[in-house]
Amino acid sequence: MSESQLSPRPVITPWLLYRTFTRFSVIGFGGTIFWARRMLVDELKWVSEAEFAEYYALGQILPGANVFNMGLVLGHRYCGWRGSVGAGLGFFSIPMFTICAAAVFYQHFGAHPLVNKALTGMFVVVVGLTIANALKMAKGLPRRARAIFFGLLTFLAIGALRLPLLWIMVALGPLGILLAWREGAPASTVPAETSTANADRSSSGEPRA
Amino acid sequence: VKTEDLFGLFWHFLLLSAIGVGGMHSVIPDIQRYVVEQNGWFTPRQFGEIYALAQVIPGPNVMLNTMIGWLVAGWQGAAVITIALFIPGSIMAAVLIRMGVNNPNSRGAHSLRRGLAPLIIGLSASTAWIMFSTLSVHWHWMAGALLTAFLVTRTRLNPLWLIGLGALAGMTGLV
Predict the structure, then answer these.
(1) What is the distance between the alpha carbons of residues B14 and B12, in angstroms, rounded to a whole number?
(2) Distance from CA of A9 to the nearest CA of B (A)
(3) Residues B56-101: pLDDT tens digits?
(4) Which residues of B9-38 are buried (b: 16+ CB within 10 A; e: fewer)?
(5) What ipTM score was computed for the predicted complex, to two decimals?
(6) Which of A107, A119, A132 minimises the CB distance to B71?
(7) Which of A1, A2, A80, A143 is deepest in the core (most CB within 10 A)?
(8) Shortest CA distance to B166 belongs to which of A117, A11, A37?
(9) pLDDT tens by residue, A52-97
């Protein structure tokens, strides 16, 4: 557990993963991803900008909370299963209590006229943020017939027709993955060796923004 | 709280979380359907308030679900939903790691990403659309949301300031 005098980087332990994920998840105003990137890329330099984007994308395709899932995969890379547990628990063990306190606040003051009006005003803005987020994501979609077709079909089914999501995921998910698989493998930007704890992480050659 | 209610809550959120590809944000329409339309635990407006509150509280936005659990069934509800939230992702992450797909750049991971990205975007657009349609009661709510979307995409304003402004506008009766 002791840190080497020569290495500027600490040895990444499950406990350190827990503390790191706790640190950015408790402050994670308006979504944890922004703070996760700031800490893991800019501050601690555990991963490069490009690696972070790819780990996050992997966290996104796993079901449920994106940053939690990213933590599982990233934690495993450094410390195996114990690393996954450390990062995963760090993500929600403290925020769980914060949000319950917010729930108690809402139970007591949610109906108070002033609080209620403030919440409504906030909701209007939050909907605007949701729209902006969808637009931003749509801009990043590859301009390919297949991608556009799948995106539109999902939007029509869920957004317009309000079909249950389960049907869509079962029908379109595997088909989309299969078609993408047939397109073949990408050019590598992340080193193939990922399982070794504290492996050299500087070999991706990507510039840091 | 009855045990079978907690079990129902657990089971439903387990399922939602299992299909919540792209984040729990993707399943907001289904969460809303379950807690507002099917069970009547919240009015559409209350759901909007809870949603907004969960966004401004420090911590992951996914904790909205824990908050729903608390409001529906106290601490047991919160605990049950929180556990349900993280099980499917953990299982799938273990499967990916076992299959060696945990390198984000392997062919498998790449196919998953490329295959699911359009769906995730379609789901985000759906969530935005359904949320937006709940604002249709008042035209100035819709205008406020569109103005926010415009400002966020065109300027570098911190969204938190906008949420603060939204709260002020709400309190002063502007929206």
Answers:
(1) 5
(2) 22
(3) 888 999 999 999 999 999 999 999 999 999 999 999 999 988 887 7
(4) bbebbbbbbbbbbbbbbbbbbbbbbbbbee
(5) 0.87
(6) A107
(7) A80
(8) A117
(9) 888 888 898 899 999 999 999 999 999 999 999 999 999 999 999 9
Query: Which among B29, B90, B123 is the nearest to A88, CB-wise?
Result: B90
Amino acid in the structure at residue A119: L
Res A193: pLDDT = 42
Residue with tokens 């750049």: B105
**Residue A195: pLDDT band with limits 50, 70, 90:** very low
B21 close to A (CB below 8 A): yes
Nearest C-alpha in A relative to B92: A62
Q: How far is CA B122 from CA A94, A161, B63, B114, in A?
A: 32, 13, 23, 14
The DSSP secondary structure of B88-129, one letter per residue, reads: HHHHHHHHHHHHTTTSTTSHHHHHHHHHHHHHHHHHHHHHHH
CB contact under 8 A, A63 and B174: no
* Chain B nearest CA to A123, separation (Å): 5
Is the minimum CB–CB distance between B154 and chain A shorter than 8 Å? no
Q: Do A58 and B109 touch (CB under 8 A)?
A: yes
Mean pLDDT of B17-40: 91
CB contact B59 to A (< 8 Å)? yes
Chain-chain contact of A134 with B163 (C-beta, under 8 angstroms): no
Contact assignment for B49 to A119 by CB distance below 8 Å: yes
Q: Which of A42-46, A162-166, B157-161 has the weakest average pLDDT?
A: B157-161
> CA-CA distance, A141 to A130, in Å (whole number)?
17
